[in-house]
């Protein structure tokens, strides 16, 4: 069952990782495309204009980067808890959003995978429900995700991924998307892209043109297109009948000078045509107009056509002419078509015999140095080979290869560390094997709030008799409620069974109704006191500072201390057990000097194992006790650490005690439930004889 669960979590994790990496990457390499999609959503929610475009570009980059980073982090199991929760929240939000677009149909394509993969709204909803279920499973058991890279090296994956995707995104915004999934990609013959195969059902489109004359704006179609006294305002193309939809179905050019449809003329032209594409000239970047004008002059000299294609009206065109000195011809086309053609405003496209052979953003236009000969003699004038594989390889080499190398190095490092640890553990083990004899072995009972006085005294008598008859080879202590102490002290042979309290006050004496001081405990004949038990920390709010006071008072009154520490289940799942335990020791006992330290016995009790029947495995317990011993060694030196008795507590029974006690660092147990019956308790004590 456990195996099945772990497999399921890991399968879901890889499904999420692959989807998020893909969807994040295709968004990140096309920030303008993502921006257009965000605007579609904003328009559908009547939120248009809420944020300026430059801010929306930031949102688009952040969205792509977030998805990509979540995917990579999921793949490498980086920050498993946080990442799985963010993924779940993200998927929950996306599922609600896609439910809305499925029901209300405000946008036709969700934009989840940019232009790389188009899904219907129904498919998107289904996909998101599946992914949300995967995310819920992973968020439920994040620690089941196997790590590829150790925690200490995960920061490299985190920073590298975020830096890589943000830089890629900004680069693509500055130039053009590295991968072009749109129909107007390099190599596409526009005319062929518009063809409908024989026999395929014909879709029908209708373009309407908004034109203005004497302040009156009217709609026209191609059939009743008026003379050039009408000023062009806008074009709208709508599909009136579904059918086979060719990849390009919305390419139509109308000359701004004559009002004629010049689509055929441009697409059938033999030779070269430059198309300067600007969806809106009013918001086009005019900083490179010098380069554009030079390319136009070059085109003129070399017999190539040059058009500026825009959806702008005459006034915007005039403004552009005044601003840039443009002498080239202008023609109109649908704004969405132009945004699809090139992700730059303006951007430049070069056609040869109607086929797109190159594209440039206005930031990376060909320079005069590149245009030294007729186009047919230049590299840019030749049809480019499809370089998709080359670019995929670059992505693999620049992103996945370094991370794979890091993973390999990390695994090798972890493996060599494991070997070194094993060797040094063997050395320490041998040392502790002998030293363990010198350290006190202890089995201590913690009765908690159980048994009245008579039953308690009877149990103490029974334990005492059993141990006097069959001498233990470890120190035995029973820790009882306050009211039992004096009476129990009277029935114990103190050379065989020690006595301890379960608590003492953090004040020396005075008006503290109901409290019992360390001095009072000592006066009963007890030699020990348990301090720092998780139940007292949890139910009675005992903080590190309060415990420090209690520790000092107990020692000042000649009591030895069984000091408890341990982590909760959440802390262990977050792999914080070491830091929790260290902080508990530092907060309450590490202020003691070396002499006082000799009176401290530590009991490591993972809270998730106390009274739950869930014992830590002997390896888990050994690992923690070895860690605690190394922490004591750091503070008090190796010799003091080797002399400190460290106990394990948490559902310890006669059945599991022999295995636990066989571990080199485990010096005995603090026993709760199993100390309330003489036979059970004795069974644990006898584990030292095995
Ligand atoms: C305890 O509370 O100290 C303890 C170890 O309890 P149990 O053995 O019942 O888990």
UniProtKB/TrEMBL annotation:
Active-site residues, as the UniProt record annotates them: 533, 605
Recorded GO MF terms: triose-phosphate isomerase activity
SUPFAM superfamilies listed in its UniProt record: Triosephosphate isomerase (TIM) (SSF51351)
Keyword Ribonucleoprotein carried by entry: no
Residues given in the record as substrate binding sites: 446-448, 611, 651, 672-673
TM segment ranges: 7-26, 54-78, 85-104, 124-143, 155-176
Any one GO biological process: glyceraldehyde-3-phosphate biosynthetic process
Enzyme nomenclature, EC number: 5.3.1.1
Membrane topology recorded in Swiss-Prot or TrEMBL: Multi-pass membrane protein
Alphabetically ordered keywords of this record: Cytoplasm, Gluconeogenesis, Glycolysis, Isomerase, Membrane, Transmembrane, Transmembrane helix
Pathway membership, UniProt: Carbohydrate biosynthesis; gluconeogenesis; Carbohydrate degradation; glycolysis; D-glyceraldehyde 3-phosphate from glycerone phosphate: step 1/1
Domain Methylamine utilisation protein MauE: 8-140
InterPro entries documented for this protein: Aldolase_TIM, Methylamine_util_MauE, TIM_sf, TrioseP_Isoase_bac/euk, Triosephosphate_isomerase, Triosephosphate_isomerase_AS
Pfam hit, one: TIM
GO cellular component annotations of the record: cytosol; membrane
Reaction catalysis annotation: D-glyceraldehyde 3-phosphate = dihydroxyacetone phosphate
Subunit structure: Homodimer.
Function: Involved in the gluconeogenesis. Catalyzes stereospecifically the conversion of dihydroxyacetone phosphate (DHAP) to D-glyceraldehyde-3-phosphate (G3P).
Classification via HAMAP family: TIM_B
Protein family per UniProt: Belongs to the triosephosphate isomerase family.
Full protein name: Triosephosphate isomerase
Source species of the chain: Leyella stercorea DSM 18206
Lineage of origin: Bacteria, Pseudomonadati, Bacteroidota, Bacteroidia, Bacteroidales
